[in-house]
Amino acid sequence: MKNQGILHYSMGSAFQLGIVFAGYTFILVGLFTVFQDNPSALYVGIAIIIIGILMALSTQGTEINTKNKTYRNYTKFFGLIKYGKWLSLEAFQNIVVIPQYHEESVLSQSNRKTSMRIKLFEIFLFGKNIKNRVQIYQHKKQSVSEAVAQEISDKCGLKLAKLKNKKQKQSD
């Protein structure tokens, strides 16, 4: 049974894409090592598989308890074990969707750099001070992030704020 009053939002992998790929590679190498005839290879293979699972399946996310007005940013290790501290939502009055660009780079053995630039729409909780902010969600589609922000706003009683772009600021 799902927890009543708790909203769950995943933000994806806890590690960069290269580390996730290495994790899946470790799992495959570990499986190959486990099936060797050498008895000590079994233990080495299991250790490699465990490290690979940690790297490949660890994720980050946010949970919001709408009844207690608390939230926690968590890291889920091995895809199972959540770790994060519950904090009060009372310091936050606003929720806002902000477009951000993220870049991930991978270097090859010949030192060539491959980069991916991705636009994500991130949801932040804001307090009275702009420095008092917490990211709680991100998605590639603006409509999805806005729908999630509206849901959180409705269930937690936070004001859904809109960012003004540069043209709007100049006309005000």
Written overview of the protein:
By secondary structure, the protein is an alpha+beta fold. 34% of the residues lie in helices and 38% in strands. Strands 1, 2, 3, 4 and 5 form a five-stranded antiparallel sheet that branches. Strands 8-7-6-9 form a four-stranded mixed sheet, covered by helices on one side. The termini are far apart.
Produce the secondary structure layout.
Layout: E1 6-13, H1 17-34, H2 39-57, E2 59-65, E3 70-77, E4 81-83, E5 87-88, E6 94-107, E7 113-126, E8 133-139, H3 142-156, E9 159-161, H4 166-171
List keywords for this structure.
single chain; 172 residues; alpha+beta; 4-stranded mixed sheet; 4 helices; 9 strands; 34% helix; disordered C terminus
Structural class: alpha+beta
List the total number of helices. Answer: 4
Q: What is the H-and-E element order?
A: EHHEEEEEEEHEH
Number of strands: 9
